[in-house]
Amino acid sequence: MFSLILPTYNERENLSVYLPKLEEFFKKQKIDYEIIVVDDDSPDKTWEFVQKYSHSHSNVKVIRRVKEKGLSSAVIAGMASARGDFLGVMDADMQHDESIIPEMLSELKDKEIVIGSRRVGEGSYGEMKWHRRILSYGATLLAKILLPIASTDPMSGFFIIRRQVFEESKDALNPLGFKILLEFLAKNPKSKVTEVGYRFKKREFGETKLTGAVMQQYIFALIDLRFGKFISLQFLKYALTGISGIFVNLSGQWLAANYLNSFQFNWVGKDILVPSFAVAFGFELSVLSNYVINNFWTFSDKAKKRIPSFLFGFLKFNIVSLLGFLIQYSTWLFLFQTIHTFYPEFMPDTLTYVANLIGILVATATNYQLNRSITWG
């Protein structure tokens, strides 16, 4: 049996045309099939339409996902519930050419992954707009640089795999973003892969799902596939957030110092109080900035959105940040004194920065583990 998974979000108009067309085609080609629509609780009630449609079409079923979101995870959910020996994926917007499916299934006799490609044989990008072509070319080039991918079109959302490929790699899949094909190719490097060319069609109804957020997810998915075994994607996001916090910290310090110095008063201890307050203000501003970014980006799956939990989380993040500062300072002091004692030839001016850098790295790793288990535990 051939199981076709259609991940959807606001595709009611397209499916009202596409489902009857697909069923008619499969019956004409005498393909034993099932169609599984996996809908992310679309506002246009795509799931409701498919539910009603399936009452009189037993080969069609729908999975409505209320909590989970995302194309890749939708595909995995569809494959997990599929009954077929061959698992196919297509977009529901009618831009993929279903007429090549028989050829793709034929190729699976001695292959394990067959990709519908816009870059082989008779394949083309059709009427795709120029800026989307550039994005596709760029994304493909990036994938080829970072990963040993055996495909001319790893960005394709149109492919068929043997069930065995899914079963052997399902536990290792990371359903981040929208390019699940990359996951299967990267997690199954020894699989026999081939491609069948097709002409990319124009979308009839609805709008493209390609957004800035989707492109960001794609880049991070690539990084995770390439370097995930060495460093987690979540920690990378946490570290990048920390780097942005350095600039926020220094900017806050500069603003506070200049604002306070603008007052023409002869304060007692002004030379000490102003810089001290400016440093404290910059530190706290960076803590707030880091907390907000980490909450809605690094730990987005556990984001604290209600005001009480958000404020309580900020308090815990502050405590962990102060602890991190103590760890950084202690590491710096220990390394500086130890190395300077046993290796006095090291220049103190250089040594202090090296020791502090190591302290920052130790504090960052410690803070990450503490925040993951305490702040967003």
UniProtKB/TrEMBL annotation:
Its family remark reads: Belongs to the glycosyltransferase 2 family.
Q: Which Gene3D superfamilies match?
A: Spore Coat Polysaccharide Biosynthesis Protein SpsA, Chain A (3.90.550.10)
Q: Which InterPro entries match?
A: DPM1-like (IPR039528), Glyco_trans_2-like (IPR001173), GtrA_DPMS_TM (IPR007267), Nucleotide-diphossugar_trans (IPR029044)
Q: What is its main location?
A: membrane
Annotated TM spans: 235-256, 276-297, 309-330, 350-370
Q: Which UniProt keywords apply?
A: Glycosyltransferase, Membrane, Transferase, Transmembrane, Transmembrane helix
Q: Which GO terms describe its cellular component?
A: membrane
Tell me, what is one Gene Ontology molecular-function annotation carried by this entry?
dolichyl-phosphate beta-D-mannosyltransferase activity
- Kindly list the organism's lineage: Bacteria, Pseudomonadati, Spirochaetota, Spirochaetia, Leptospirales
Name recorded for this polypeptide: GtrA-like protein
UniProt GO BP? dolichol-linked oligosaccharide biosynthetic process; GPI anchor biosynthetic process; polysaccharide biosynthetic process; protein O-linked glycosylation via mannose
| Subcellular location as annotated | Membrane
Q: How does it sit in the membrane?
A: Multi-pass membrane protein
Give every Glycosyltransferase 2-like domain span. Answer: 3-168
User: Domain GtrA/DPMS transmembrane, which positions?
Assistant: 237-376
Q: Which Pfam family is an annotated match for this chain, by its short name?
A: GtrA_DPMS_TM
